[in-house]
Suppressor of tumorigenicity 14 protein
Amino acid sequence: MDPMDGGMRYNPGSSDKDWDQAVTFLPASDNKKLEKKSGSGKVGVIVGLVILAAVLALIIGLLVWHFHFRKDLKLQKIYTGSLRITNEAFVDAYENPDSPEFKSLAKQVMIQLNSMYSESPLLSKYYVGSRVQAFSEGSVIAYYESDFAVPVGQEAAVDQGVSKLSDMYGSNKVRKLVEKPGALVFDHVVSSANLRFSQHTRGSEDEIIRSPGFPDKPYEPNSFVQWQLRGDPGYLLKLAFDTFNLEQNCSNDFVRVYDSLVANDKFLMAEKCGYYSPTDSPTFISSRNVMLVTLVTNEEGNYPGFRARITQIRPDSTELTCGGRLTGSSGSFQSPNFPNYYSPNTTCQWEIEVPVGKFVKLKFPKFLVSSGSSSSCPGDYVEIVGKSKLCGQQPANTMVTVNSNKMTVVFYSNSSHVDRGFSATFDAFEPTDPCPEMFQCDNKRCVKPTMRCDGWNDCGDSSDEKNCQCDSTMIQCRNGFCKPLFWQCDGVNDCGDNTDEMNCGCKAGEFKCSDVQCVSEKLKCDGNRDCKDGSDEEGCSREMSCTVSTYACSNKKCITKQNPQCDGQDDCGDNSDESSCNCGKKAFKSSRVVGGQDAIVGEFPWQVSLHVKNMAHVCGASIISERWLVTAAHCVQDDKIKFSQPGTWEAYLGLHTQKDKQTATKRLLKQIIPHPYYNAYTYDNDIALMELDSPVTFSDTIRPICLPSATDVFITGDVVTITGWGATREGGGGATVLQKAQVRIINDTVCNQLMTGQITSRMICAGVLTGGVDACQGDSGGPLAYFLNDRMYLAGVVSWGDGCARRNKPGIYTNVPKFRGWIKEKTGV
Ligand code: 4AZ
């Protein structure tokens, strides 16, 4: 049977086979001979000797089995745990494992642990020892690892034994185990099981590893399993996953692959989570004959897991060969193991030579080279010697040319963090014609001539859209761009300098929507949203004559003062601008997001964490009333998970750290209302409302944020605050503690240029253009808040961006004032 076949179950190493051999080692006596020679004294001596030899062999066999093979049938199980010492106070020296204080307390804890395990006959049989790893405050919490050598088949019993002991020492059961004066008193023993397998792949035999339970059941919660993999000397190990299906969020469950036998970050090749289709499942190759694979899972959301095949390969195998001399007018090459992960510690050098008199052009259809966080490529890189160094993810078909018929390309990978590598093609070109029959962009790319002046930025640097003579189907922008005529007066600044949105007056009898669209005057205030942005229905219930740029009071007065609400002055005369002001204030006087810092408890009491039920944080949201939340429409779009269904979600209110969700206020949802014009391609109108299944009572940690009025404006440079539990770096894990950061409002025209024309009037840009501070994955749906008249208002909803915290790439937020009428209509708030 193919060992990858789903029917085969885990077989710990080759020790079963060894056991069979040990049994056959016991010799059988020769019955025929015994029958023939019976009765003779000589025969009696021989028979006696044979029996003696057989008994001796039996004893030796049993001893060999007991001392050699039997121990191979044991697994090393490591339980990590913590316990609280209630009769000790924390001192700073406990932070230093080399201090005498640390060592003395650790020794006492180990005595307690030995004593605790000796209470169970089963555990004491397999217990090997414990190590204290750290102490923390409260009174003193000790963190430790306990090792057990567990015979195969006994794992579940030992797991049960350990969890029973933890229960015995549960939260309210204070114990003192060693009855000596001054002995530690402790409670709150918490343990979780770790499992370690060791496997040695020999010769051409493959080995299979799989997450515990695979394929019959999901992997266990709260587990830590590691596989130490070894090959024969001189070989490398190839780890090929054929199934990989873990929880999406790597901060919950993940697999790590190390180019080492120990979990040292210097040799971490990759951390993986989520789902990979079988055709795209990752394959890793070590740089030596060892590898370590670890699986870490948290308490929630357990998925099928993984299965992988380990094979030995020679360092000179074809999939790893790279570099060399390439000649001719064109050719191609790629990183070792492409399109799968290259190995750490690899260097390859290609010498390209095209016919004399021609120059070399190198193109990378795919480029993914692990770079670390800096653009100077401190990690892995591809160097075009004398010209440039590339790393990270490069756009498809990135091009480099040299003014010579020779080019040297070096690929280097360091000891950690590998990626899928690159494919490259080279071509010779005439020095006078670098893009034969193509348009050459300023960045040296060549694009089809039909792409020139078509309104789209095909070069990536907009050079194909510059200095265009526009034909009759195009708008001539003042800045030289041409844009399709049907983009004129659509409320979006497509030109970048707003030329396409100028002179967009409406005909007599038409109403001009605030996004410049014209609709029949008769449609104004008819109860239907005829303008895309709903501005034909705004201010209707109050005063017909108020414009979209004046504030409508309840007494039908229109106020031209900007942002008059809740400023402590009765601007309307009926105080209506000062009503509904129980919002936007925190309870206490005091003062992830990338580049942020931990928020203070209760500092942003409107911040909500949206979890997919029984799973993890997915998006943020803001409280606007006892019943309603505002979030992003893209958070509630169906995917593999039915995000659009209220039943999918649970909302945590008053939450500060994700670890405390048990103590936060949880609400299920009654309904979700995504904006009807949300566009999943452009993220236009990215806003949704969520109604809670029951109202919340406001408290110090749960309060609403103020909603801006439709006429509120944000001024370029204004400081705004973003908050969330999203990733603290691009591609990184989510934050545990709520993060806050300050960014500034960015001018729409500048932003539209930076974001290659993708900004609509329903979006606001905010960020720090030098990079480093931004919202990121997981912050979506959360608030962009601004401070006005001593309160915080919801200016925007975290929506999208080009990566996170990149230079010249602001974060994009849904422009909440544009949706003020819609929010009122749907929620009454
Ligand atoms: C996201 O994926 C996301 N840098 C949110 C905000 C930004 C980028 C990505 C802005 O949820």
